[in-house]
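Researcher: I'd like a structural prediction for the single chain below. Treat it as a standalone chain; there are no partners to consider.
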Amino acid sequence: MKFSRRDFLATVAMSTASATLLPAAGAQSAGPMTEHMHDPAQGHPPDHAAHNHEKPHRPAVPRLPALLCKNTRTVNIDAAYDQLKQGRDTLDAALYLTRTQEDDANDASSGLGGLPNEDGVVQLDACCFHGPTRRVAAVGAVGGIRNASLLARTVMDKTGYSLLSGTDAEDFAVAQGFAKQDLTTERSRKVWAVWKQIQQAPRPLSAGLYDPTWPGSVNRARFLPASQKDLDLLVRRFEPLAVAAGLGPQWTWRAAYDALFPGPAPLYVATVNEKHELSSAATTSGLPWRMAGATSDVAVIGAGSYLDPEVGSAGSSGNAEANIKIGGARLIVESMRRGMSPDEAGMDALKRIVEWYGNDMKALRFVEMVYYILRKDGAYSCVSLWHGDRTGHEQQFTIHDGVRRSEECLFLLDGNPANGPEMSMQEDT
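Model: Treating it as a single chain, here is the predicted structure.
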């Protein structure tokens, strides 16, 4: 059953002002600023993305300087903001954060310890924009170079090209003094081993969905259970593989989850100083278990990241294919150029994704998309296709404009991909 655009738009949730019941583990949200976390006693890991610091409301008048990024570890966010306050270059501040994450062996989303491709090799994508000099560069599918975001800046500084990829980018990095190393860690190798075993085992597929946008020969790997409860049960069924692989108890649930339902989690950082100068940077190890050589939207300038020094910047986290199709980041910046607010521009881009998929809720349940938006005057927004992610956590982001805090994203669809919106629950039975 397909829903008309009128029916679809009638169900869209455009504001975070209402308290919402997320269909994950039966937990209620107490309001727009509530941290929604799985109970570790139920076998779930703590939510490392959630921040526990204070969450004051958005200021009525934008403040400068400002730093915007996904919810991530809070290490060095204050230090990066201090660099902006001290008048340091806006790209230096952004890269200070990306480098920190790339150096963190316990972070599975980029750099050292990033989850590998199907061959067990970590390949990285990164890009950077320098607003004051109007320069940009990206690298894609780069192996063995931990600080891919710094490599992107080196490409920007040392060449006239906007993209280098694969082994040629690796050779360039070594020639420029970057050390080549094995980016897999003991933990990431064990998680990859769990994925390999799951691929060889019969999939316990009860009621659920296959992604209709993928070819039949490969969409076996693109599956969602019918409900959050079914998803949790499926993950727990495979946790013993993670235990057998030697992963500690803090990693077993996440290892099984990433093996079954991989999703990219790039770090995007946007900065603006008191002179209204903008920069941005992004780094990622891409979709875990992806085909060797496949790049994410981070390596596609205008999709995963875009900046116009006269307007603002935008970046993304989520389904690369969906974002590349609409050129999401550039679309948002151009919408702001035409007078849209950051909120309006972000929501308009999400609607474009929905239209691209023909309002098909079955297909959209495989799409997670979050846009991070920063205007040159310090106004900002973060919008999400879904209220929650596949594990049921509310989509949030981090802003530092003198007060570091996390805020909940505006969202287009209530619910989360594992459950879908209420109107889609009957169409796939």
